[in-house]
Design a protein that fits this description.
Blueprint lengths: L2 H24 L7 H14 L10 H24 L14 H13 L6 H15 L2 H10 L1 E3 H28 L4 H23 L7 E3 L5
Antiparallel strand pairs: 1-2
Length: 215
């Protein structure tokens, strides 16, 4: 465990807590992509199938349980508790365009052709693109509430910190996970434009992040 890994996990946890508090306090999931939340729940489910068979550390086990629980709790809030506020009309990204290639890649690129390994690889590839329905929704509506952008910022920060973690581990341990690193870099790239808008618009005190209108 190094500081970058720990900070990345904390950023990830903060992002999910921000999202859940936003939904719970406002009693609304407006502006939140339910499809992205379902994809993240699928990511954690397929990644942590070894929860009861492989023990690494108390920290690792607790974090697995926390992320699984919070991801399903978020899906429940969006599709059950506050379903009347869910903006299905704008959450229209075709997730099959993500799932089909991710499934295919999982069978082609993995470290061992076993069910658990393929599902782990699937979770890594899927996490890289799971945010796309949310970003698509923001693009479609043209704006996002500041609290939603804070959630996205901490998600992007989590991935950026994990890249630093991988660099640190490579230099100190000689460890290099090609699948995780490439997927993490791809995921971080998706956030780059958002980071710019977040800094130039949200952090300047605007209530919402409004996308620039095309010329």
């Amino acid at each position: 465990m190094n500081i970058f890994r720990l900070a990345g996990d904390v950023s990830h946890l903060v992002a999910i807590i921000i999202l859940m508090l936003k939904i719970w306090k406002s009693k609304s999931c407006a502006g939140i992509s339910g499809k992205s939340q379902v994809l993240f729940a699928l990511v954690f489910t397929t990644r942590y199938l070894d929860l009861f068979t492989v023990f690494i550390s108390p920290y690792n086990t607790v974090m697995k349980v926390v992320f699984l629980s919070l991801s399903y709790a978020t899906v429940y809030l969006v599709y059950m508790r506050f379903r009347n506020t869910y903006d299905a009309e704008n959450d229209t990204f075709r997730v099959e365009f993500l799932l089909v290639p991710v499934i295919g890649l999982s069978f082609l690129e993995n470290y061992a052709f076993t069910p658990l390994e393929i599902l782990w690889t699937f979770s890594i590839f899927l996490e890289a693109v799971a945010i796309m329905p949310q970003l698509f929704m923001i693009t479609k509506t043209g704006e996002a509430e500041s609290i939603t952008t804070h959630y996205l910022f901490f998600l992007g920060l989590y991935r950026a910190l994990y890249i630093a973690n991988w660099v640190w581990r490579y230099h100190t341990e000689g460890f290099f996970d090609q699948i995780a690193v490439v997927s993490g870099v791809v995921q971080t790239i998706f956030y780059c434009d958002f980071f710019y808008l977040y800094v130039t618009r949200v952090l300047r005190g605007r209530g919402k992040m409004t996308l620039p209108m095309p010329v």
